[in-house]
Amino acid sequence: MNAVPPKPSGTPVKTVYLIDASMYVFRAWHSMPDAFFDTDGNPVNAVHGFTRFLLDFVEHTRATHAVTAFDIALTSSFRNAIYPAYKANREPAPPELKRQFEYCRELAAACGFSVLADATYEADDLIGSVLQSSRAHGLSAVIVSADKDFGQLLADGTEQWDYARGQRWGAAGVPARLGVEAHQVVDYLALTGDATDNIPGVPGIGAKGAAALLAHFGNLESLLARIDEVPFLRLRGATSLAAKLREHAEQARLSQRLARIALDAPVPDDPDALKRLAPDHATLDALFERLKIGPLTRTRAHQVLQTGSVP
């Protein structure tokens, strides 16, 4: 990783907010009533909820640098080439939600946010790669998401913010949530797997077992290199754990590759590309008209989005 250049004394550190946008679209989809329709009669409840989220976020943070990362790589991620069953347990989004995701990307762009989406890299990878670049340019970063996978990125002052719950933490907050240090999150997922993403892990090793093993061995490779020591640990079923690790060592390494967030996705390297721009008022108004968003929200949007943005 590139070293972070020293900043002149007295220079304020800029903060870039890295928003896991798809998470907040899904939350709106599940929480908003089916009472909102566009001018063609299509449901747009998730778009209305996502609009509220963006406006609340800007009003609360006055963010000058913000990125919205969207998932469009459900079956075309580079992880699918490594492991075809990756996320195969997920049902594809229904057409009415896919349409709303397109609206949400248009809306975020019109609101002045940098919008990232890639057919090969997932939103996590886009966020991780922007974070890597931001650190190199001396920016601090806040990942806006509740996803536990982001724990692996919490170093060098980076924070994670579960916006809906109002909870914010850095690397020191990871052990209370997962039982392991931030730098061990990838290896933790390699052992436990992740049912949400269909990452297999090591069958029979759960959260407590994985945490105990990593507390003793430090990382996955050290654990696999010293499997013969496992039966002698003061762990329930230690002998069985050793047998499982021997049988599924390569599956654990595969799971590690699947769980690791990529830091080399094609993202802007210039910090100026992360600035929140002034809203495109004409495009916003056209979108609001199509989405049948009311006058109070329209007025609020034009007022709130102008604050802290780059003209």
Please give the largest β-sheet. Answer: 6 strands, mixed
Distance between the termini: 33 Å
**What is the level 1 CATH name of the largest domain?**
Alpha Beta
Beta-strand percent range: 5-15%
The CATH topology of the largest domain comes to Rossmann fold
Strand order of the largest sheet: 3-2-1-4-5-6
What string, H for helix and E for strand, traces the elements in order? EHHEHHEHEEEHHHHHHHH
Count of domain modules: 2
Q: Which consecutive residue ranges, at least 5 long each, have pLDDT under 50? A: 1-10
Number of separate strands: 6
Describe this structure in words.
By secondary structure, the chain is of the alpha/beta class. It folds into 2 domains: 15-177 and 262-306, 5'-nuclease (Rossmann fold, 3-Layer(aba) Sandwich), CATH 3.40.50.1010; 179-259, DNA polymerase, domain 1 (Orthogonal Bundle). Helix content is 44%, strand content 8%. The protein is built from 13 helices and 6 strands. It has helices spanning 21-31, 45-61, 78-82, 95-110, 123-136, 174-178, 185-192, 207-217, 220-225, 238-247, 249-259, 281-291, 295-306; strands at residues 15-20, 65-69, 114-116, 140-144, 159-162, 167-169. It has a 6-stranded mixed beta sheet with strand order 3-2-1-4-5-6, sandwiched between helices. Strand 5 and strand 6 form a beta hairpin. The relative contact order is 0.16. Residues 1-10 have low confidence and may be disordered.
Summarize the helices and strands and which ones pair or pack:
Layout: E1 15-20, H1 21-31, H2 45-61, E2 65-69, H3 78-82, H4 95-110, E3 114-116, H5 123-136, E4 140-144, E5 159-162, E6 167-169, H6 174-178, H7 185-192, H8 207-217, H9 220-225, H10 238-247, H11 249-259, H12 281-291, H13 295-306
Parallel strand pairs: 1-2, 1-4, 2-3, 4-5
Antiparallel strand pairs: 5-6
Helix pairs in contact: 1-2, 2-4, 2-13, 4-12, 7-8, 7-11
